[in-house]
Amino acid sequence: MSLVVKSPISPELLKVAVACRSLKREMSLSIDTSEYLLSIKLPSTAVLFSANAAVRYLHKVSKPGDQVNYKTLQWIEWEQQCLRQNVIQFLALQQKELSADFQSALSALNEAWTKQDLDQDPILQCIYAAALYPLLSQHESVLKKYSHLCDWLKKYAEKPHFREALGMLSWDCVSEYFTHVHKENSSVKSRVDGQSKHQSPVVEKKATDQISPSDLKAAETAWVAGPASNSEIERHHPILPEKGKRNILITSALPYVNNIPHLGNIIGCVLSADVFSRYCRLRNWNCLYICGTDEYGTATETKAVQEGLTPQQICDKYNKLHREVYDWFGIDFDYFGRTTTEAQTKIAQDIFWHLHRNNYLMPQTVEQLYCASCDRFLADRFVEGTCPLCNYEDARGDQCDKCGKLINAIELKAPRCKLCSSPPEVKSSEHLYIDLPKLEPKLREHLKKSFSNSGWTGNAKMITESWLRDGLKPRCITRDLKWGTPVPLEGYTDKVFYVWFDAPIGYLSITANYTSEWEKWWKNPAEVELYNFMAKDNVPFHSVIFPSCLLGTDDDYSLVSHLNATEYLNYEDGKFSKSRGVGVFGNHAQETGIDADIWRFYLLYMRPENQDTTFNWSDFMLKNNSELLNNLGNFINRALKFTAGTYGGILPEVVLRDKDIELIALVNRELEEYMVDMEKIRLKENLKRILNVSKLGNQYLQENQPWKLMKGSAEDKKRAGTVTTVAVNLGFLLSILSEPFMPATAKIIWEQMNAPMELTKTLSMKFTQFLPSGHAINKPSPLFRKLDEKEMEDLKNRYAGDQETPKQESQPKEESQPQVCNGSNKASDSEIAALEAKVSAQGQVVRELKSNKAEKSVIDKAVMELLELKKAAALAKGEDINSQKSGGKKNKKKKS
């Protein structure tokens, strides 16, 4: 197994090392020194960022016939959500004794380890042995109480493959790692995401020993004070920035009109932005959420040819389909537009003229394929031919679908025009490039300030810095296409703007179609915060290229303040693919009979914030049944049904006791963290926090048991009334917290509670008595339905696609992840960015091997990989490989 390790090391590597040794598999592992981020390279060149996912992957490829059951998935998640946090906290704080939570967790694990045959599960063996080994190696005494678990762990740790894995890793910096991770997760209090002992491994009881007297007093005061007086807040369009208010402009990556969005597209941009937009409205911030379809470029022309329509007809068709999908998912844009408008042409050409006058544009000549019969230069997707690498006869001009390699169209063997099948010729064409090196100082100054804001994700910063690390290069902004915004400069009027330059300007033009006063949003950086939401492949366009174009105009544009980028959501064992019918697309979700809020919940629960995640039907069922049905839905329904059945739907009087005030204080603590995490756009974390508040409510009901109190004395009955009203009010608070995530469900709860609408418009800073004693509720009913295995299996089979299509065949880029810019004559810029990142990473591998004086054969192999990556990147950019090589040699001679 090859290890690429930048010290300090993450103990998470041990999990993968153990799996590799036990299964005799090879895998490349690495860790980022600054952020302690794990990255695991797969043989397919894909990367995983979760050790647990890597262990599952290794077992799947080694034993393809074995199916991962629900119990295994449950305990994998429990290790990540509960056990890991307890281990981190214990070792980071150098505690002498286990906390009550940690003891409870280990007791449950010890009991289940034998009774549930977990010690026979090879996946769980790898994960739990590695997870607990730091505890065993340093504090064996604390584990002796848990005899079954401890005995197994000591025996497993002596197995040859485990010892081999240990020998491959350095443990010098383990304490430093735990300290760092504990600081990063200081807000985490060892929560467990299960619901009850029969539904998930462990139920946590929230500790109250750290609640201060002042917190308790504040909790009681807030409850008694009731909600702040607030008239109903209506949004009046057009929404414009206001002085003295927090003005937030929200955009999500513009989806292409050449296909229906799949679940990965939806969570990667529009849904994530929708949650944040709804939260901003609850905080009464002045916000505007803008989006629309990206309609120009090669992808649209290609789709038009495929469907026998004009590009405009394709745009009209798919803009409508996108609108319908987003409406069904409850995405509440303030305005959803499109880029094929007069405003787009006017604003794009205005920015172009500013760049031209400021001398930030330069001409360069490139070679392209030209079809004399069609009288046009051919975009890569309008060229087909024989792959120069594997001889596949139907390779595209940008990529071969058989071997998956990126191709330069002019290197295809026997190329043919896709439109008329005539053989094209190679011709030169002059294009305009933006001089990014000249703009780089301005960009760096802007990013230095912008990076200090809380809304930037780690991957967005890392991708941006990787582009800047070696210096920016000039980028082409024109293309020889028909469908696009026309270039107004004489000599280039037969060309259009390259889609990556043109598409982000769509945010401005769509806003201009929303309001004639659009410049109050887009030329007002002193008063406007700009939030961008997208998948990681779109980061360079929004953090480097688009801001550089705006900076080059010398107009005072509003530039990105916060850039929130997700990793990728995959589907079951592979990727979404429209052509092969694999995965759930927006229109499919509507056909399943499962409510839109359930889809929103699971996508946000699995939101790929720090690593790629996977949509899985079994897990979808598990999360719905345990988290929504048996936790959130169960709590609210219990409280309302008891109110309806016992009190005729009228909330009884409240006389608070210490236990009630403790609950209120605990909820206030969660509420404060909810707002902090929303500010940082940790949506996945906050969804789990909502579920944690619901767990507190279920525990509160279970401990006080008002149904039993009603059978007791007059004082007991009075106590039952207090518990009931507190529980219903907690349910109302949960509906407000849930509204950004599940808006339709929130409305149903408000209807059942007969809640005054003015209370539903604002998020309270404290848990208070929203609904007073004497308030009448409406008839309650269950909020969620149970999903069963048969239903999930049927849906899984329905969207499994063509199983006979070879899995190694790569898919066209537009089918993989959400993008805004992908209409080039060469490879898409997102593909180029990915290749350049791989070149950088492999370059670091080579440097480290040479620094460590590795064997020549190992170094040579790494160098060959680096050269192949550089060649692929050059081909993707349409560069002349031969001239690039000779130039490199000349430069090398000069340096020597």
Could you walk me through the main structural features you see in this protein, from its secondary elements to its overall organization?
Strands 6-5-4-16-17 form a five-stranded parallel β-sheet, sandwiched between helices. It has a four-stranded antiparallel β-sheet with strand order 8-7-12-13, with no helix packed on it. With 896 residues, the protein is α/β, with parallel strands linked by helices. The protein is globular. Mean pLDDT is 83; it is low at 1-8, 31-36, 187-209, 803-827 and 880-896. It has five domains: 12-184, Glutathione S-transferase Yfyf (Class Pi), Chain A, domain 2 (Up-down Bundle); 253-353 and 500-594, HUPs (Rossmann fold, 3-Layer(aba) Sandwich), CATH 3.40.50.620; 366-431, Methionyl-trna Synthetase, domain 2, CATH 2.170.220.10; 613-760, Isoleucyl-tRNA Synthetase, Domain 1 (Orthogonal Bundle), CATH 1.10.730; 828-895, Orthogonal Bundle (Helix Hairpins). Helix 24 (658-679) runs antiparallel to helix 25 (683-704) and helix 25 (683-704) packs antiparallel against helix 27 (714-738). It contains 32 helices and 19 strands.
Characteristics:
single chain; 896 residues; Glutathione S-transferase Yfyf (Class Pi), Chain A, domain 2; Rossmann fold; Methionyl-trna Synthetase, domain 2; 5-stranded parallel β-sheet; 4-stranded antiparallel β-sheet; 32 helices; globular; disordered N terminus
Secondary-structure blueprint of this entry?
Blueprint: H1 12-23, E1 28-32, E2 37-41, E3 47-48, H2 51-62, H3 70-92, H4 100-115, H5 122-143, H6 147-156, H7 160-168, H8 174-184, H9 213-225, E4 247-252, H10 263-268, H11 270-282, E5 286-293, H12 298-307, H13 311-328, E6 335-338, H14 342-357, E7 361-371, E8 376-377, E9 383-386, E10 395-396, E11 413-417, E12 425-434, H15 436-450, H16 458-469, E13 475-476, E14 478-479, E15 496-497, H17 499-502, H18 506-514, H19 519-522, E16 528-535, H20 539-553, E17 560-566, E18 569-571, H21 586-591, H22 596-605, E19 613-615, H23 617-647, H24 658-679, H25 683-704, H26 706-709, H27 714-738, H28 743-753, H29 789-798, H30 829-851, H31 856-876, H32 881-895
Parallel strand pairs: 4-5, 4-16, 5-6, 16-17, 18-19
Antiparallel strand pairs: 1-2, 2-3, 7-8, 7-12, 9-10, 9-11, 12-13, 14-15
